[in-house]
């Protein structure tokens, strides 16, 4: 009975060692992540094989695995840049990106886990300064925001494409101008809008005047043609027709034949 503890103790130690080795030799990688294997007694970072994917893995206890987020990520950056005329502009932008999956080992070996701070953010700042420096504050405030967003994306992409980073989009969230410049631009835009409205009113009034002139000219032409076509004979005939119709009316009246200046009948009625 006294020997039992002496026999059981080594077994317990062996069991504990096995548990430690198994725990050190297994790894579970979560969704949206991948692992870069580092072989301590090999050539270091494994770059000639795909990274370790999601799920359960057996790893030699003397090796290491570095976990990376491989889903699309977003990083925000606030910058102060200069416009083409030297005014300070505050620019808020964000980038959508992800590491290149197949090149994850090279990214870890050459750039490290802090690749966002070392590569991506400095590149965005440099591209933003270069692009914004081509535009005036008025252009940045009004019509050129989409243009500078596209240009920052293109310039950033040219650099990071060779850095094992996949850049998906650059979004310019906000452009903040100095208060005095912003007020001046807003006043100018308001004046331009009022000027356009005034010009529109002038054009509308001019068109209406032209319409009235054309309408009056048309009436004058019609009256002139009508006057030219109405001879004394036609007028007498029309007068006789009207006299006959009036005489047939049931209302009481007095008809004086040949009483008018032109010999036309004069009709006197009690109504």
How would the blueprint of this fold be written?
Blueprint: H1 4-25, E1 26-29, E2 33-39, E3 44-45, E4 55-58, E5 64-69, E6 73-82, E7 88-99, H2 104-110, H3 115-132, H4 137-141, H5 145-160, E8 165-176, H6 179-229, H7 232-247, E9 253-256, E10 266-269
Helix pairs in contact: 3-5
Tell me what the structure shows:
This protein is of the alpha+beta class and 271 residues long. It has 4 domains: 4-69, no CATH class; 73-177, Band 7 domain (Tetrahydropterin Synthase, Chain A); 181-229; 232-269, no CATH class. It contains 7 helices and 10 strands. The strands form 4 sheets. A 3-stranded antiparallel sheet has the order 3-2-5. The longest helix has 51 residues, at 179-229. The chain is elongated and about 145 Å long. It starts with a helix and ends with a strand.
């Amino acid at each position: 009975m006294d020997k039992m503890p002496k026999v059981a103790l080594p077994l317990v130690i062996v069991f504990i060692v096995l548990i430690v080795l198994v725990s050190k030799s297994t790894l579970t990688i979560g969704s949206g992540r991948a692992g870069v294997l580092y072989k301590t007694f090999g050539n270091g970072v494994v770059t000639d094989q795909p990274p370790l994917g999601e799920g359960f893995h057996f790893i030699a206890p003397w090796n290491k695995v570095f976990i990376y987020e491989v889903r699309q990520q977003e990083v925000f950056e606030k910058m102060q840049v200069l416009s083409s005329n030297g005014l300070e502009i505050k620019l808020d932008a964000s980038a959508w990106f992800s590491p290149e999956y197949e090149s994850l080992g090279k990214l870890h070996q050459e750039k490290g886990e802090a690749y966002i701070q070392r590569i991506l953010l400095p590149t965005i700042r440099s591209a933003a300064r270069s692009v914004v420096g081509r535009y005036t504050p008025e252009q940045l405030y009004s019509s050129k925001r989409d243009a500078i967003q596209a240009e920052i994306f293109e310039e950033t992409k040219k650099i990071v494409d060779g850095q094992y980073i996949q850049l998906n989009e650059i979004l310019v969230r906000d452009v903040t101008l100095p208060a005095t410049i912003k007020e001046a631009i807003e006043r100018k835009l308001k004046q331009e809008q009022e000027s356009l409205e005034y010009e529109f009113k002038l054009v509308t009034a001019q068109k209406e005047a032209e319409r009235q002139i054309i309408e009056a000219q048309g009436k004058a032409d019609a009256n002139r043609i009508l006057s030219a076509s109405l001879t004394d004979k036609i007028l007498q005939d029309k007068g006789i027709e009207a006299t006959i119709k009036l005489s047939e009316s049931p209302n009481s009246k007095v008809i004086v034949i040949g009483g008018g200046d032109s010999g036309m009948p004069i009709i006197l009625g009690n109504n």
